[in-house]
Fold:
Amino acid sequence: MPYKIYVYDTDTDCIGTGTLSSAYIQTQLEAAAGQDVDVHISSAGGSAFDAIAIYDLLKKYPGNVTIYIDALAASAASIVAMAGQQIIMSKYALLMIHKPMVGSGGNADELLKDIQMLNVVQSRLAQIYMDKTGLDGVTVNSLIDSVTWMTADQALDLGFIDQVEDYNADISNSAIIKNYTSTAPAIYQRCINKILNTNMNMNIENRELIDRNTSVLDKIMNFFKKVVNKQTITDKGTLHHAGELDEGTEVYQDEDMSTPATSDCYTTSSGQKVTVQGGKVQKVAPPAIDPEVDPDADDDDDSLPDSLFGSKKKGDVQNRVKAIKAKLHAQNALLNEAKAALEAANARLHKTRDEVKNEIKSDFTPEGSRRSSKAKTEPVPFFSPQTTLAQNAVKKAIAK
Structure:
């Protein structure tokens, strides 16, 4: 049983006075006589010099020293807290560090000496924090200058403590099993619950058994994922999903189904066109069958003889074949589009001269022309005299 020392503030005492002075802590350590010591702290601070003295006493103590921050380790008390081989902080407690302070008076020279003294003291306090956390001097002094309050999690992240003390109930084997299998299909959950109810010794705490169960349960859940989750091989990689690949189905890039599939158009090994938007299937178009280029036209059986696999896994080879087929379907779709474009171009080449002329329409007007839009649309007369002589002859003929 460790010897317990309580560094708790009272109505009259803080660090440096009464039962919280370095002299009193020394008598406590002498009484402990080398056995392990648990030091519980709940203090708003006090004298920085006494705090450094207590820190030094605890560091030199021959037994193991464990520090417990029960509620508050602020100011000088935070220095005492750094002395433990292990520092454990309640998840409800707080740790605070700040610049050292002094109440003094006098002339300018005396005040300047106080400033110099405070800077030296801060450098010693910062070194204690640096030795514990491994942080650099700039970071530690920045935390000191800012008057930093830390929760247990924040203190743990920065390295001021080693462990956060929680008060949750002990975890039993059955609780771990239920946590692992909560997402499994109902039929598996029923089987597991039956095992737990039959074997009552599964509900007692046994850390070694818990560790073994955790490893086994990882394998079980991986098996569940393979049974429940499905994958569809496409020309752009594998799509992972639960259930059939229909409109509205959520699709993912990874087996854990944590990263949604990229928005794109995918071609499956059977030739289906799958349009994905925002991680969901928007449309599934049936394959366009073309016997001339369809990779599955003459092969309805994807099975391959085992002799072809050698040392490779059969499933890996079959998945590779499906991926190749998916890419072939995607390429065939592009070929069909190119073929349709070529046919359209060929049809235009075979049009007659008149058909091409009829398609050409122009409203071009020479620059500076005064012809009206009406004049442009009037048909040219069958006979129109062009010379002045011809025009005069027509006029004379009409006058007679």
Notes: The longest helix spans residues 314-349. The chain is about 45% helix and 15% strand.
